[in-house]
Design brief:
There is one protein chain. It contains 11 helices and no strands. By secondary structure, it is mostly helical. The relative contact order is 0.17. It has one domain: ABC transporter involved in vitamin B12 uptake, BtuC (Orthogonal Bundle).
């Protein structure tokens, strides 16, 4: 019997892979205060799903195209009289609303909207697993390749220019990586919870990391533990898997905060 014949094994591999990619990327989201950008990108993916279903093409491709288009549009317009948060709010909610309306017009297409909104990790197929891990490896390679430049651009635009680094280019690299993570994470935690998987492990790791690299590794560990423990808890208690994974991540954040307070109290 092939080990991948088990739906639980496929689900575990998918959750583990998404956590490995989302957590280090989430560190940059936290450092750059881009939490709303991550959430807006995830919301916009519903429009990508609707377009992919309309043209009978890959959902991964549809979501990736829409998220990259939104990132490019926001980057282009943000310096031309529009505030970043305003642009994100308008585009995210507009894309979400248009996507939901477009889905309702689809004829002859059976769609489980709840699965896209909250994830359906237990339904991950072999092909889905392949797509997930291709996306995960792509994101990890991209972060490894641009790590130093991304850190420099995150610290200061002036410092980046002095080092010969274009901050806008690094912003686009992050946008591409974020688009890929959103596209592969939809099956795992769904559109509405992707931002949580990006932000919570990184936020939980922050008090215990003395260096950016250490924070990324700790965040990846917390994300992986959340995915595995959340999957197990959902199986035992018969709860929705995606929300359960996020609940475990939130519990890790609370526990980390309490440990940090206790350490500070003891040191004081």
């Amino acid at each position: 019997m092939d080990i991948l014949d088990s739906f639980l094994v496929r689900a575990a591999l998918a959750g583990f892979g998404v956590a490995l990619a989302a957590a280090p990327l989430g560190c940059f989201v936290v450092w750059r205060r881009m939490a709303y950008f991550g959430e807006a990108t995830a919301h916009a993916s519903i429009l990508g799903i609707a377009l992919a279903l309309s043209f009978s093409t890959s959902i991964f491709a549809g979501v990736l195209i829409i998220t990259l288009l939104m990132g490019w549009t926001v980057s282009t317009l943000s310096g031309r009289g529009y505030a970043m948060d305003t642009l994100l709010g308008v585009m995210a909610h507009s894309a979400l609303a248009i996507g939901l309306v477009a889905v309702s017009f689809l004829q002859g297409v059976r769609i489980d909207l709840m699965a896209y909104l909250f994830g359906d990790i237990l339904a991950v197929s072999r092909f889905d697993l392949l797509i997930v891990w291709i996306g995960v490896l792509l994101v990890l390679l991209l972060l490894w390749w641009r790590w130093s430049a991304l850190l420099t651009a995150t610290l200061s635009n002036d410092l980046a220019y002095a080092a010969g680094i274009d901050p806008r280019r690094e912003q686009m690299v992050l946008t591409i990586a974020l688009g890929v993570v959103v596209a592969v994470a939809i099956k795992v935690v769904g559109v509405l919870l992707i931002a949580a998987l990006l932000i919570i492990p990184a936020a939980a790791a922050r008090p215990f990391a003395g260096t950016p690299e250490r924070m990324a590794f700790i965040a990846a560990g917390i994300g992986a533990i959340s995915a595995m423990a959340g999957l197990q808890a959902a199986y035992i208690f018969d709860t929705p898997t995606g929300p359960t994974i996020v609940c475990v991540a939130a519990a890790c954040f609370v526990l980390g905060g309490l440990l940090n307070l206790l350490k500070g109290h003891v040191a004081g």
